[in-house]
Design brief:
Layout lengths: L1 H13 L19 E10 L2 E9 L5 E9 L6 E5 L10 H10 L4 E6 L14 E3 L2 E4 L5 E6 L2 E5 L4 E10 L14 E4 L1 E2 L10 E4 L13 E11 L6 E13 L8 E7 L15 E9 L9 E5 L2 E4 L2 E2 L15 E7 L4 E6 L12 H10 L2 E9 L5 E3 L8 E2 L14 E5 L33 E4 L5 E3 L3 E3 L2 E4 L12 E5 L5 E2 L2 E3 L4 E9 L4 E10 L4 E6 L16 E10 L2 E4 L6 E6 L2 E3 L4 E4 L5 E8 L2 E8 L13 H9 L19 H11 L21 H9 L19 H12 L23 H12 L2
Helix pairs in contact: 1-4, 5-6, 5-7, 7-8
Length: 760
């Protein structure tokens, strides 16, 4: 700001020079009918849909959903991050899963979780391994043929002590036959919560407990921790006092806080005891579950919305939300609603989402976590990596406790030496093989885009291999438009409006593909820009012949619209300038005016053009450049529309007015303090400002003599006070001796004049 003021100061100085101066420096029945809906088939039985709607309150709602069909090559799995304790963002979750060998196409957030520890509130079953207890939450069970909801399942862990040196069928040891029942499995230990079991799935560091308690540490001898099965363990250590306890791979820790008063349980175990840990569920279907996580309220059951008064009261208001719906044929929809971003999406109530999901054919719907946790990330065609599609309301990715991932394989080491997929059960690994370069799926690059009717758009194509990774595109792709729009040499002519289903075919690769373009005749947003700056054009301050290359940005429903230049019209009325068919505007003569009109897609933007008067008497004058700059900045004005008055003297009142304008004309509350300044004069406010800021001190007798001719030393003094009030009184008066008349400078002006000399 100070630099700009100094620049104005230097331009003002130029007016006093006697010689030439140097140059100066949603979508569905609940959130409203979809205004936009686009479904991309990524692979057989695997689709991605993006929709925009406006709800009953007129708020924009944007939704993102993935659908998996039974038997699809892409199927859902559940993962509670790398460990139960401590969460991951969706990007880190996908990267971690891929480091294990999963081919991940995307993910959505899963269960509710503790914000401090990221431990999921409900249960977790990951590739058949029981990792965390449900704690009175429902569980969503996923498999390749469909899904189901286990309502409030009870999963019990029991420890049966066979005694020291126990072998099947042989009884030994004084602790034989003792049973301990545990319901908390890999959850944060509460001081009054009773017995807890921890495995290395909870944390690779420790139990993360912080209060005093005791622990029994077991080593797993045989078996796997899954629902409906058991493992054999041996007591390795008993710790009677401690806060946190190491777990270790292949170990189990049983613990309770001192406040629970359960130390007598220690008497059930001794080092060397062989103990059987068994897991049983009230819902026998969970014995076969491979992938499951906790979930919230059941919103839809048997195709009907359930009783809202049973839902979590804290979650009823419009919010970002993630839900999962199950269709009658076993297909699963994973649905993310954006929210809390007023210009983008207002979120939705659970009732609205439930109605949306019913309209999509879901017979069962469950609520997952939402708010800042709602997120969906996908590896869409043409991309090597997944990226977040929605706009998380935190403004960035939030670490969550669990996720549903969409994968094409189970890594070899997790399934006894074979790699499986959703169709055949076993496929050879393709990474690094010749298969990587073989295209299997075709797509259009501008999938789902709006196209303005009348445009001609170049079409580009994408291809992916059997793992849905980008590969070389065949060169012989033919295109067929579903609404008979011509495609010649891959140039798409948007003649007919409507949703255009595009069919692709490559004879050489023996594959087909599909895509969608939305051809529209009207748009809701047209912005005119200066292509050089990318911002709105500025027509003020132009000289005759100056040019601006205009362009436009066209949007519909906050989405960019594809268009070609021929659908934009530029027109000019009057003599304020001209514009050609390509949008090149040329400024007209000084003082001329006119109206510029830019139209496209049923929208028109108008600009009133009024060319500045360029004063005739400065055209050959040394001050021309400085006058024009000060005039454009609003600091000086002429004595008429065509004359500046180049050689007229400047009076004190007018100079103070120029300073006032250079400072942006700040608000003035003080009244005129000089007796000879008429409050109705054009410079009165400026003089009041200058007096209040000790810039103009007057003549010492209460007068200012505003109509007196300004002297150079008076100008220097007021400029010094205005621009450099904190600079201080330096001993620099001797500098004036370089001028033959330096001794004639008045005492009040000596320091200001000398200081300005130091500035050059």
């Amino acid at each position: 700001m100070k630099f700009k003021k100094i620049l104005s100061l230097l331009l003002i100085f130029a007016l006093f020079s006697s010689v030439a101066a140097p140059a100066a420096l949603g979508a569905g029945t609940g959130t409203g009918e979809a205004r936009y809906s686009n479904t991309l088939t990524i692979g057989e039985g695997f689709t991605y849909t993006n929709e925009i709607s406006y709800n009953s309150s007129g708020k924009r709602v944007e939704t993102y959903s993935v659908e998996t069909a039974p038997g699809s090559q892409v199927f859902p799995i559940t993962m509670a991050c790398d460990t139960i304790y401590g969460g991951l963002t969706v990007t880190k979750m996908i990267n971690y899963a891929q480091s294990l060998g999963y081919n991940v196409l995307g993910a959505v957030n899963g269960d509710f979780f503790s914000m401090s520890t990221k431990v999921p509130m409900g249960g977790v079953i990951e590739n058949g391994e029981y990792k965390s207890s449900p704690e009175e939450e429902n569980m969503l069970v996923l498999n390749r043929e469909g899904a189901y909801v286990s309502v409030d399942p009870d999963i019990v862990v029991e420890l049966f002590n066979g005694g020291q040196g126990a072998v099947p069928g042989v009884t030994s040891g004084g602790n034989y036959g003792k049973k301990v029942t545990v319901t908390h499995f890999n959850k944060m230990r509460a001081d009054t919560g009773g017995l807890y079991i921890f495995t290395d799935a909870f944390s690779t560091v420790s139990t993360r407990t912080t209060s005093n308690g005791w622990a029994v540490r077991f080593k797993i001898v045989s078996g796997e921790l899954s629902v409906g099965s058991s493992v054999t363990m041996e007591v390795e250590e008993i710790i009677q006092n401690g806060t946190t306890y190491p777990i270790g791979e292949g170990y189990v820790v049983l613990t309770a806080a001192d406040q629970c008063g359960m130390r007598e349980t220690l008497s059930n175990f001794a080092v060397g005891d062989v103990v059987t840990l068994s897991v049983s569920a009230s819902d026998p279907r969970l014995n076969e579950a491979q992938w499951a996580l906790g979930c919230g309220d059941v919103l839809v059951e048997n195709g009907q919305v359930t009783q809202e008064d049973t839902w979590d009261k804290q979650l009823l208001s419009p919010n970002p939300r993630t839900v999962v719906g199950i269709k009658a044929d076993g297909s699963i929809i994973y649905y993310v609603v954006d929210g809390r971003i007023s210009s983008h999406s207002g979120g939705a109530t659970m009732r609205e989402i439930a109605e949306d999901m019913i309209s999509k054919g879901c017979v069962t719907v469950v609520n997952l976590d939402g708010g800042g946790s709602s997120t969906i990330s996908m590896r869409l065609p043409g991309s090597e990596n997944s990226y977040v599609l929605n706009r998380p309301s935190d403004g960035s990715e939030r670490s969550c406790g669990s996720y549903i991932l969409f994968v094409t394989n189970i890594p070899e080491e997790t399934v006894s030496g074979e790699v499986t997929d959703g169709n055949t059960g076993t496929v050879p690994p393709q990474t690094g093989s010749q298969q990587d370069s073989v295209p299997k799926y075709l797509y259009i690059k501008d999938e789902g885009a709006f196209v303005l009717q009348g445009s001609e758009i170049p079409m580009e194509f994408l291809a992916s291999n059997s793992e849905f990774k980008p590969c070389e595109v065949p060169q012989d792709i033919t295109v067929l438009s579903g609404i008979s729009n011509p495609v010649t040499d891959n140039l798409y002519s948007a003649v007919n409006s409507g949703v255009d289903g595009i069919t692709l075919n490559s004879a050489s690769a023996g594959i087909t593909g599909a895509g969608t373009l939305h051809v529209i005749s009207e748009v809701d947003t047209l912005k005119v820009i200066d292509t050089e700056t990318g911002k709105g054009p500025v027509f003020e301050g132009l000289s005759e012949g100056d040019t601006i290359q205009l362009g436009v940005k066209i949007q519909n429903l906050s989405r960019d619209v594809l268009f070609s230049p021929n659908v934009v019209t530029y027109a000019m009325e009057g003599e304020g300038g001209t514009v050609d068919e390509n949008g090149l505007f040329t400024a007209g003569k000084p003082g001329s005016s006119g109206k510029l009109t830019v139209s496209a897609g049923g929208r028109t933007v108008e600009y009133e053009i009024k060319m500045d008067n360029i004063f005739l008497d400065i055209q050959q004058h040394w001050s021309k450049e400085f006058v024009e700059r000060l005039y454009k900045d609003g600091i000086v004005r002429g004595i008429s529309e065509t004359e500046f008055g180049t050689d007229l003297p400047i009076v004190r009142g007018d100079f103070v007015l120029m300073l006032y304008r250079a400072f942006g004309q700040p608000e003035v509350t003080d009244t005129v303090s000089f007796s000879d300044v008429d409050p109705s004069k054009h410079y009165a406010t400026a003089v009041s400002w200058a007096a209040a800021n000790k810039i103009a001190l007057g003549n010492g007798d209460g007068t200012f003599t505003p109509d007196s001719t300004l002297t150079r030393e008076q100008a220097f003094t007021m400029v010094y006070r205005a621009f450099f009030p904190e600079e201080g009184n330096e001993s620099i008066e001797d500098l004036l001796s370089i001028f033959s008349d330096g001794g004639e400078v008045s005492s009040f002006a000596r320091v200001p004049t000398a200081y300005l000399v130091t500035l050059g």
